[in-house]
Amino acid sequence: MKGKFKTAIYADNRRAFFDYQILDTYEAGIELFGFEVKAVKNGKANLTGGYCAFHGKELFLLNAKIFPLQKKNIPAEYNEERSRRLLLKKSELAEIARKTQAQRLTIIPLKLYNKKGLIKVEIGLAKGLKKYEKREKIKKREAEREIQRAMRDL
């Protein structure tokens, strides 16, 4: 049965890499309804603007949108931005909580993907970038593009 499942990225949060400096990453399972799994596998998920927060001792994914695949097959009270529980080991949860408290970090979802038939979320411990740091990043990227263009023209 080797190679039965292919790794596919269903959604990624490109904006997170621009707005934050990612310090550490973790892989977490996510608790979804059946119709949400179908929607995610068909690319109807959006992580932009999403974040993770602790409620008690559990970690939840907030503000991430999973749009329904078929409008007629969902409950009437379904909220596409509902909070979804992330499934991590207790030791990982304790480590994440300790790091976020001590270093004042944010927990950001980076990508939603398939691993051995299960939907996983890659979350990152991130530190927010200042406006001037973002500007420097853009200038550096544009300078590299100019260098590449000049090298190609030679």
Please characterize this protein's 3D structure.
The chain is of the alpha+beta class and about 150 residues long. It has one domain (about 10-130): Small Protein B, Chain: A (Beta Barrel). Helix content is about 35%, strand content about 35%. Strands 1-8-9-2-7-5-4 form a seven-stranded antiparallel sheet. A hairpin with a 2-residue loop joins strand 8 and strand 9. The protein is globular, with a radius of gyration of 18 Å. The model has no long low-confidence stretch (mean pLDDT about 85).
Descriptors:
154 residues; alpha+beta; Small Protein B, Chain: A; seven-stranded antiparallel sheet; two-stranded antiparallel ribbon
Listing every helix as H and every strand as E from the N terminus to the C terminus, the arrangement reads EHEHEEEEEHEEH
Return the CATH topology: Small Protein B, Chain: A
Q: Do you know the CATH architecture?
A: Beta Barrel
Any low-confidence stretches, pLDDT <50, length ≥5? none
Mean pLDDT: 85
